[in-house]
Amino acid sequence: MVCYVNNLAHEAAENQPLTELLTALGQTQTRGLAVAINDVVVPRTEWPTHAVQPHDRLTLIRATQGG
């Protein structure tokens, strides 16, 4: 199935949990990472059980420091 990560098409398994998709994307360091699916933020506690659906639009945002 195809989903979109930061506006780029990505192939993922059907009903793949969000944590597995993040690992497949190389996002192993999740501290400071926020994920929204279809413009709705997914709480970190729901990542292991939230299944990604076909054509979902994921936005990954990483907090940075600086001024």
Explain the overall architecture.
This protein has 67 residues and is mainly beta. It has one domain (2-62): Beta-grasp domain (Ubiquitin-like (UB roll), Roll). Helix content is 10%, strand content 31%. It contains one helix and five strands, in the order ββαβββ. The chain has one helix at 18-24; strands at 2-5, 8-11, 33-37, 40-41, 57-62. The chain has a five-stranded mixed β-sheet with strand order 2-1-5-3-4, with no helix packed on it. A hairpin with a 2-residue loop joins strand 3 and strand 4 (40-41). The chain is globular, with a radius of gyration of 12 Å. The mean pLDDT is 94.
Contiguous low-pLDDT stretches (5 residues minimum) are none
Q: Can you give the mean pLDDT?
A: 94
Number of strands: 5
Structural class category: mainly beta
What is the CATH topology? Ubiquitin-like (UB roll)
Q: Level of helix content?
A: 10-25%
* Total discrete domains: 1
CATH class: Alpha Beta
Q: What is the radius of gyration?
A: 12 Å
How many angstroms does the end-to-end distance come to? Answer: 40 Å
Give the H and E element order.
EEHEEE
Identify the strand order in the major beta sheet. 2-1-5-3-4
- How much strand content do the residues show? 25-35%
Question: Helical region count?
Answer: 1
Largest sheet, in brief, is: 5 strands, mixed
CATH architectural category: Roll
CATH superfamily descriptor: Beta-grasp domain
Shape: globular
